[in-house]
Design goal:
The protein is mainly beta and 370 residues long. The protein contains two helices and 26 strands. The strands form seven sheets. Strands 15, 16, 18, 20, 21, 22 and 24 form a seven-stranded mixed beta sheet that branches. A five-stranded mixed beta sheet has the order 17-26-25-19-23, with no helix packed on it. Strands 5-4-7-10 form a four-stranded mixed beta sheet, with no helix packed on it. The structure holds copper (II) ion. Copper (II) ion (CU) binds next to loops.
């Protein structure tokens, strides 16, 4: 295939992509006053994981904060104008707001805009929802990641969670206390036990490569991802630990179904390059259908088969209850936990080979229901 771009002719798409300068230090067009503002730099350091291994990681950090992995949680309210001032020190890098779909200049994809050489302020608007309307509303679980030499930079750790919280509508008020809705007319959940779950697998050979490895067409092994470390990252969002460290998930607290507290919400962000399966079971090893899927990739599950407002499936007779959740790269699921009784349950996460589907790695965490 020959690709032509104005005065050049390229032998391939790779050749074309590799030859783009596309580095710039532009000003943000049509800039407005932000409601939410973050500043992100880039760090490069070895971090110790919960299996005792240390790996060289690259990720994003706020100037005054820890150099931790995953990168800082960014939380935005529907209706907000959001700004992120990004100044990569070991660039160029970008920030892609995965699932948000802003205009190309603010979408952080170098091939359709530019990579940041200097500083850039990304700007986008979080669209407010409306009860019963399946077509609008940004509330949900997303993530942000670098989109330069993407497979490598994401594997190196350049990713962080992004959550958009809904506006409150008078017909769907929020109960007093530590409660929030997942989306405008969605179910309420307990803020205190809200948990981020980021499965991530790591191939140490990739963590020896340079910033632009493979970009000039040479084979550096980026077609071969052979993870030997498997991690469950995250934890209770209200209790993220401090320090230059990996945020590891060891246990999940969940509120028992039917109790006074609202259900626990687990926000799954799949940071892997392979198929994965998550299972819920009890101490006998029996599957427990305690997981209710309420949204996927920032889009609520709604009943759309009838005329009129399309309700959250949570408020219909067709709740999406399951004991097994399959997901792949970059997928997000918002999962309410409904453990039937107090006690201990388990969540097992399995990483599967792309082709053979054999289990390459597995991790289990305890879910303590009270
Ligand atoms: Cu990058």
């Amino acid at each position: 295939m020959t690709v032509t771009n104005h005065d050049h002719t390229y032998d391939s798409q790779v050749d074309f992509s590799s030859d783009q300068v596309q580095e710039d230090n532009p000003v943000t067009e049509h800039i407005e006053e932000p409601d939410t503002y973050v500043e992100l730099g880039v760090f490069n350091r070895r971090l110790r994981f919960d299996d005792g291994a240390t790996h060289l990681m690259w990720s994003f950090a706020k100037p005054e904060s820890d150099r931790a992995f995953p990168a800082p949680l960014i939380r935005v309210n529907e209706g907000d104008i959001f700004h992120a001032r990004v100044h990569p020190s070991m660039g160029p890098h970008t920030v892609h707001w995965h699932g948000i779909e802003p205009d190309p200049r603010n979408d952080g994809v170098g091939h359709t805009s530019f990579e940041i050489d200097g500083t850039y302020t990304y700007q986008w608007h979080a669209e407010p929802g409306w009860p019963g309307d399946p077509n609008i509303g940004a509330a949900g679980t997303y993530f942000y990641h670098c989109h330069v030499n993407t497979p490598l930079h994401v594997q190196m750790g350049m990713l962080g969670p992004l959550i958009i919280d809904p506006v409150v509508h008078p017909v769907f008020p929020v109960t007093e206390g530590v409660t929030r809705r997942a989306f405008i007319d969605g179910p309420e959940y307990d803020i205190d036990t809200e948990t981020l779950l980021v499965p991530y697998s790591l191939d140490p050979t990739w963590h020896t490569l340079g910033h632009a490895a493979g970009l000039s067409g040479e084979d550096v092994g980026l077609n071969l991802f052979e993870p030997s470390h498997f991690y469950l990252l995250g934890g209770e969002m209200a209790r993220r630990p401090r320090g230059d460290r990996v945020w590891s998930l060891s246990t999940i607290r969940a509120n028992v179904a039917g109790g006074e507290r609202k259900p626990t919400l687990v926000r799954l962000l799949n940071a892997n390059y392979m198929p994965t399966t998550m299972r819920f079971f009890n101490h006998n090893g029996d599957p427990v259908r305690m997981a209710e899927l309420i949204a996927h990739d920032g889009r609520p599950f709604r009943e759309t088969s009838r005329h009129g407002p399309s309700r959250s499936c949570h408020f219909t007779d067709n709740r999406l209850m399951t004991d097994i959740v399959a997901s792949g790269a970059a997928e997000r699921y918002d999962i309410l936990l409904h453990p039937p009784e107090p006690g201990e349950y388990y969540l097992t996460f399995e990483w599967e080979h792309w082709i053979r589907r054999e289990v390459m790695g597995s991790r289990t965490v305890t879910i303590t229901a009270s």
